[in-house]
Design a protein that fits this description.
Elements: H1 2-14, E1 17-23, E2 37-39, E3 52-54, H2 65-79, E4 83-84, E5 91-96, E6 99-106, E7 109-114, H3 117-131, E8 133-138, E9 141-142, E10 145-150, E11 153-157, H4 159-168, H5 198-211, H6 219-225, H7 234-249, E12 253-258, E13 265-272, E14 283-290, E15 293-301, H8 309-333, E16 342-346, H9 349-356, H10 373-379, E17 383-387, H11 404-413, E18 416-418, H12 424-441
Helix pairs in contact: 8-9
């Protein structure tokens, strides 16, 4: 999903035309490389006892079907002159002179973007000749994500999906909540009573996890809920219902990727030390912007216990640095390169000092070697660490439940908009002001 969002952000900035395709009966195109036999289908009249069918082509239901289809599509695209990305195998690119085409594959759904409409039409004809495609026209609805493109940029949201969740759980008429989580609340494994239908909670959390693809504002709340899917309690269900009441306030909110954004990568890294009541592990939170477009974010509990807040922040920096390096590889395949180091903002001066100091101290020698990728990338000129105040730390909302005033500031910096709201133009003006403030801070 990060690749999809990066793909759309770059296309918006460069003004590429985005088309959507669908392959008809994709799994039937795969060629089998080994012998596979199938029992005779029901109603086969001339069958003999113990007779089976030898499959010459792939069928739906075979374990090999998806792999063989992907292999055949990849081979065909390479014949067309495309190169497969090493950062993400689902991305294919082709450049001929000044013409550039990028193709993003998700099983049988394809996004096609480029600056040459003639070559894009030729490619669609080639794909239709080999696989029989369904041309869905301009990008509109992809993997449950609604996309609306205007001259100002691209807005993506999951309004239909959010409304289905609210309807399933009876929250269409609920009173909206102003924040997705109660400030200061610490969920744990002991408070409350085990619920009688845990599968309802699990299904709800699973759907909310997919909704976070366009709703970063609920990432922390959903991450907290996902820790208790094994043995959920009534307190966890109440917290999940709080998220639903928050979504009820604006189910159509989503990310906006402006077309006038600069091609500049910057990230914010944060951590909340020992926030987990049960394990005392810290939470890593980061968000990465391409210009003014939010393309990557994460809220995740750290794998090990940190002995200090500086160590927890340093581990968060390591996670952010690895994500930045991967995004640089991905953006290079999309012909977006950067001559200056990527700026990473952190609100912990001790963590910045650890990253920039090449001498091991007593407080850092117990930290795993893989965390010191921060130092390596600083030395290579890939990233540059800068201090930022906690008030201006955009990633703060990915590590803790914020009170309403701070949550509103966090929400504005993410670039969330509601294309279905009556005053959508006013939202864009407010968003532009927030972006100017963010650029000034940077």
């Amino acid at each position: 999903m990060t690749t999809i969002k990066t793909f759309l952000a770059v296309a918006a900035i460069k003004g590429w035309n985005i088309q959507q395709l669908d392959i008809n009966n994709a799994f039937l195109h795969g060629d089998l490389e080994e012998e596979v036999y199938m029992v005779l289908p029901p109603g086969f009249k001339n069958g003999k006892p113990n007779q089976v069918c030898k499959l010459m082509r792939s069928l739906y239901g075979l374990k090999q079907a998806s792999r063989q289809w992907n292999a055949k599509l990849t081979k065909a695209l390479q014949v067309y002159g495309f190169q497969q990305s090493s950062a993400d195998p689902s991305l294919f690119t082709r450049q001929t002179g000044t013409s550039f085409i990028a193709l993003l594959v998700y099983v049988d759904d394809i996004l096609l973007a480029g600056n040459n409409s003639v070559q894009m039409n030729d490619l669609k004809q080639s794909l239709d000749r080999d696989f029989k495609i369904k041309d869905l026209g301009n990008l509109n609805y992809f993997l449950g994500i609604e996309a609306v493109r205007t001259d100002a940029g691209i807005n993506i949201c999951q309004r239909k999906y959010a409304l289905e969740i609210l309807k399933e759980h009876g929250f269409l008429e609920a009173m909206p909540a102003k924040t997705p989580a109660v400030t200061g609340q610490k969920l744990n494994n002991t408070d409350g009573i085990p619920i009688t239908q845990p599968e309802v909670f699990r299904r709800l959390v699973g759907k909310l996890l997919y909704l976070t693809n366009t709703r970063p504002d609920i990432s922390y709340a959903v991450q907290q809920l996902s820790q208790f899917v094994e043995k959920p309690r009534d307190t966890h269900m109440v917290a999940a219902h709080r998220v639903l009441r928050y979504l009820k306030g604006a189910p159509g909110k989503g990310l906006f990727y402006p077309s006038n954004s600069l091609m500049k990568l910057q990230g914010f890294s944060d951590s909340d030390w020992a926030t987990c009541v049960d394990s005392r592990k810290s939470v890593t939170g980061y968000c990465i912007f391409l210009g003014n477009s939010l393309i990557s974010w994460k809220t995740k509990k750290q794998a090990t216990i940190s002995r200090s807040s500086s160590e927890a922040e340093y581990r968060a920096l390591a996670s952010t640095t690895c994500e930045v390096q991967w995004l640089l590889f991905l953006l290079a395949d999309l012909k977006a390169t950067f001559s200056t180091p990527v700026t990473l903002y952190c609100d912990n001066n001790s963590a910045i000092a650890i990253g920039e100091n090449f001498v091991f101290h007593e407080r850092t020698k117990h930290i795993e070697i893989d965390c010191h990728v921060v130092r390596q990338k600083i030395n290579e000129g890939v990233v540059k660490l800068l201090a930022v105040s906690s008030q201006n730390q955009t990633a703060d909302g990915f590590t803790k439940a914020l009170p309403k005033p701070l949550f509103d500031k966090f929400h504005d910096k993410l670039g969330l908009q509601d294309v279905h709201a009556p005053a959508y133009g006013l939202q864009q003006s407010k968003f532009s002001s927030s972006l100017l403030l963010l650029s000034f801070i940077a």
